What we know:
The complex is a heterodimer. Chain A is an alpha/beta fold. Chain A contains 16 helices and eight strands. Chain A has three domains: 3-23 and 38-144, no CATH class; 170-281, no CATH class; 283-440, 3-Layer(aba) Sandwich (Rossmann fold), CATH 3.40.50.150. Helix content of chain A is 65%, strand content 9%. The N and C termini of chain B lie far apart (42 Å). Chain B has helices at residues 3-28, 44-57, 71-81, 94-103, 114-123, 133-139, 152-165, 167-191, and strands at 34-39, 63-66, 87-89, 106-110, 127-130, 143-146. The chains are: A alpha/beta, B alpha/beta. The interface between A and B is large, with 42 and 44 residues.
Amino acid sequence: MNSDRNDEQLEQVRGEIRAAAATLRDRPRLPSSAPAQASGADGIEPARRRYRIAELTDPPYHAFVEHAFRALLKRAPTAAEASAQLDLLGRGASKAEVLGNLRWSAEGRRQHVGVAGLLPRYIVAKLGRVPLLGYLVEWGTSLAALPMLARQLRAADAAISAGDAALAARLQPRIDELRELVHGLGLARDELIRSVDTLDERLRAHAAAAEAVLGDLARRQHDLEGARKDELEFVRRRVYVMNRWFEALQGALAEVESAADRRDAGAREFEARTRDAIASADASRVARLERWSDALDPACVAGARIVTIGDDADWNERWVSKGVAATPLATPRAADAAALRDALARIEDGALAALAVLAFPALLRAMPADEFVAAASRVLRADGFLLIGFAAEPVLAATLAGDAVPAVQPAALATVLAAAGYSTRRVDAADGTPALLASKAAR
Amino acid sequence: MDASASSLAAASGRLRTQEADDALLRRWQTRSTVWAASCDDAGVPLLLDAFDACLAHVDAAARLLVLDHGGEAVVAEAQRRGVGAHVEYVRDGAGARKAALLAADALVACGGTVGTVLDALAVGTPVTGIDAGAAAHVAGVAALLWRMDDSAAGLIACTIERLRADASLRSLLRARGHARVSSLGASSRSSA
């Protein structure tokens, strides 16, 4: 609100000023006049042409130079000019000499300002600059002026004393303020010292507490390192003991495996000898193999491949004599399952004209029936035969060697083969040994 | 020389300097109109037109104190116009400038420098002139500024005449000047 009022006032003033300006040219023209001179000033004006020397010499220092320029040259001094004149005063020149220099300079002569009493003083001052003569003149003037100098000295002493008293009166309040300030600063300093002492005590207490904590931590660290070393030693000993134990176990296992291998080799040898003995005593074996090879003849022509699982050298020789490539795979024991799978896996897909197993129950020790049928389906040609016999001599030999041989009926196996897509027919031997001839081709 | 004697000597030096500035102030403070002026080259003709109008129709004994660099051009032009005796170039230091501002009825800003306008606002000297340039922008509402046209010279002369006669207007502009300086100082501190 106040600001709005001020703005309104200013706008009103602006309007009145515009109105006054519009009529300004209509006012009567004023007669020319010199610039106004200050009333009650120091009496030195630019337009003034006459001075008494005391008017110019009374002001001190800066003011003296300023007044001298304005009075004698009618202008203010430049900074360089004022500095030069002040330097002159500083080197002991009299004010009369400075005034004379200005008055009788080229510029001063153009202004032609009169200063009563200046010329003789200036001449004396300049004579004082002449070698030897100046010295005598200085002496003379100084001697002549001694009474006046003494009087001025007394006056100056009185003035200085008065000035000192006045200055002391002016400075005393400031001195008192400074003393109070110093007192206050002293109090503040004492308070600060107390604060610093308090802070120092707190910091020392904190430092002591921190040192105690650090000592405790160091002790704990030392204890932990000791405990860790003990634990490491314990673990190292345990690892060493376990290593020795594992070495012993490894040796025991090697001995067990060696004993098992020896036992297995003995069992295999016994089984083979028993099988060969039973086979050589079996008078119907030749007729039985004859019957089964005849069943395979349609597929096993010269150049064909047949694989037989079983240790039946006379069977394989029979095929070789016919020009068929016969490959025997030994009758597997339970431990030979991996070897049998590997051997079957190495036969190419659809490469065999026939796959024969003369004693199927003995095969079951190493491979289940469904896995064997699946392998046979892969390796047989489309028109190939799968002969599965149930000869008794390998089964008897295995049983006598202590190896359990699972019992299986031909009819049950025929069911498994039918489920796998085979058609089967019985090709039993004349002595009644059963056998199945399976094929996927339509008969 | 101990510290107290040194301080006493320094104080004595300051007193003597102040004494010289006071002498200038006494010389410039008259019952006639006193202008302080801050102008650039383009503002010289307008400034002297306004001062001529003042001498011719308001106060024949008026005095013009030119503060900024370039005051020689103003003095030369004033002498060419025959009013050189009324014009003075204040080329001394800050003390003389301050004395001129204290002695003047107003500062006339015709362009000129920002620092001179700020000094005038700070010491309470009213500011008038032309509403153009950075100096006028700094003065803002604390100054009585006019558009630069044919009537500007008469408006400036009449503004100073009004300021000499109107104490309430002087106090209003003085208060606004102090507020303006304070706000400018606060904004410069916040931007720093």
